[in-house]
Amino acid sequence: MRILAAMSGGVDSAVAAARVVDAGHDVVGVHLALSSAPGTLRTGSRGCCSKEDAGDARRAADVLGIPFYVWDFADRFKEDVIDDFVAAYAAGQTPNPCLRCNEKIKFSALADRAVALGFDAVATGHYAQLEDGVLRRAVDADKDQSYVLAVLTAEQLSRAMFPVGDTPKDLIRAEAAERGLAVANKPDSHDICFIPSGDTRAFLGARIGVRPGAVVDDDSGDVLAEHEGVHGFTIGQRKGLGISGPGADGRPRYVTAIEPDTGTVRVGSAERLKVDFIHAERAVWTSGSAPDGPVECVVQVRAHGGLAPAVAEATESGIEISLREPLTGVAAGQAAVLYRPDPAGDIVLGSGTIAVARPVAEDV
């Protein structure tokens, strides 16, 4: 097959490309230029898709003996990922830009161009397992990225390959060293790739501006502080609230609700963060069709945690998820990913974007 290997400049995508070459496929490497400032350099483990990363990807392709190109997707990335990220925070949500990048860029815009050029699939260095259209967690649980791939449709998965998902990360690094790839010990990227400073609040503030509002106590209704915009807060946040001391009960306060229309940020006890029902929109089912009736599953609401057994059911408006155990810190804009436990790697059933998370206290 003709395979387009998406090469970020990191060790995972380099080994993924190498494995596809070893499998006998006709492989071409491509690095996506996603920054409007191509001179930007990586700072340690922060950022990606920089000028340095492009150079690392090219050197890896040279070692593998495959053609290599750089494709400019900066405008599409800004529109579909960065602008979406900013808009979601302005609306009081907590988005995951990696999901949107996979959905809109790597397995949509990139894959569409690849198919148009005669390629059969796109191979990436994501940690997940994919066989016969079934998406599973990676063997390395600490590196598993199936959560950020759960937004992919059955059609998108049919054009994807994840060659490193069956191997622990330390062995991937060892393999890279054996192959003579200079990125063998390159640090993994952390945080949000387009915010290399790590200061998300400053990044959002520069684009959204000042939109004053109040921090209000859930119990008393008292205004505890003023703030410059709801984009500076997320559900479950404890620090940086601008308030003095704990609540009247002597316990810490957390952000329990964000109301973008009024600019109100509500804070309360940890108990108020517990939810047992989630309604998710924009449902995607990896099999290509929704299940018939309720499904016993495990739901994950954050990229690195937030799991609970649940019963999920497809509806006309999305997915209704009843949690068998309460979860905390569930925010609108996050993805709710449904898994079916399996010894060979939990199977991804589907996902949806969280629209409503109902607190336990509101049950009737």
Automatic annotation (TrEMBL):
<feature type="domain" description="tRNA-specific 2-thiouridylase MnmA-like C-terminal">
    <location>
        <begin position="278"/>
        <end position="354"/>
    </location>
</feature>
<feature type="domain" description="tRNA-specific 2-thiouridylase MnmA-like central">
    <location>
        <begin position="202"/>
        <end position="268"/>
    </location>
</feature>
<keyword id="KW-0694">RNA-binding</keyword>
<dbReference type="Pfam" id="PF03054">
    <property type="entry name" value="tRNA_Me_trans"/>
</dbReference>
<protein>
    <recommendedName>
        <fullName>tRNA-specific 2-thiouridylase MnmA</fullName>
        <ecNumber>2.8.1.13</ecNumber>
    </recommendedName>
</protein>
<dbReference type="GO" id="GO:0103016">
    <property type="term" value="F:tRNA-uridine 2-sulfurtransferase activity"/>
</dbReference>
<keyword id="KW-0547">Nucleotide-binding</keyword>
<dbReference type="InterPro" id="IPR004506">
    <property type="entry name" value="MnmA-like"/>
</dbReference>
<dbReference type="InterPro" id="IPR023382">
    <property type="entry name" value="MnmA-like_central_sf"/>
</dbReference>
<feature type="region of interest" description="Interaction with tRNA">
    <location>
        <begin position="143"/>
        <end position="145"/>
    </location>
</feature>
<feature type="active site" description="Cysteine persulfide intermediate">
    <location>
        <position position="193"/>
    </location>
</feature>
<feature type="binding site">
    <location>
        <position position="125"/>
    </location>
    <ligand>
        <name>ATP</name>
    </ligand>
</feature>
<dbReference type="GO" id="GO:0002143">
    <property type="term" value="P:tRNA wobble position uridine thiolation"/>
</dbReference>
<dbReference type="GO" id="GO:0000049">
    <property type="term" value="F:tRNA binding"/>
</dbReference>
<keyword id="KW-0820">tRNA-binding</keyword>
<keyword id="KW-1015">Disulfide bond</keyword>
<comment type="similarity">
    <text>Belongs to the MnmA/TRMU family.</text>
</comment>
<dbReference type="GO" id="GO:0005524">
    <property type="term" value="F:ATP binding"/>
</dbReference>
<feature type="site" description="Interaction with tRNA">
    <location>
        <position position="334"/>
    </location>
</feature>
<comment type="function">
    <text>Catalyzes the 2-thiolation of uridine at the wobble position (U34) of tRNA, leading to the formation of s(2)U34.</text>
</comment>
<feature type="binding site">
    <location>
        <position position="32"/>
    </location>
    <ligand>
        <name>ATP</name>
    </ligand>
</feature>
<feature type="binding site">
    <location>
        <begin position="6"/>
        <end position="13"/>
    </location>
    <ligand>
        <name>ATP</name>
    </ligand>
</feature>
<feature type="active site" description="Nucleophile">
    <location>
        <position position="101"/>
    </location>
</feature>
<dbReference type="GO" id="GO:0032259">
    <property type="term" value="P:methylation"/>
</dbReference>
<dbReference type="Pfam" id="PF20258">
    <property type="entry name" value="tRNA_Me_trans_C"/>
</dbReference>
<dbReference type="GO" id="GO:0008168">
    <property type="term" value="F:methyltransferase activity"/>
</dbReference>
<feature type="site" description="Interaction with tRNA">
    <location>
        <position position="126"/>
    </location>
</feature>
<dbReference type="InterPro" id="IPR014729">
    <property type="entry name" value="Rossmann-like_a/b/a_fold"/>
</dbReference>
<keyword id="KW-0067">ATP-binding</keyword>
<keyword id="KW-0489">Methyltransferase</keyword>
<keyword id="KW-0808">Transferase</keyword>
<dbReference type="InterPro" id="IPR046884">
    <property type="entry name" value="MnmA-like_central"/>
</dbReference>
<dbReference type="Pfam" id="PF20259">
    <property type="entry name" value="tRNA_Me_trans_M"/>
</dbReference>
<dbReference type="GO" id="GO:0005737">
    <property type="term" value="C:cytoplasm"/>
</dbReference>
<keyword id="KW-0963">Cytoplasm</keyword>
<keyword id="KW-0819">tRNA processing</keyword>
<dbReference type="InterPro" id="IPR046885">
    <property type="entry name" value="MnmA-like_C"/>
</dbReference>
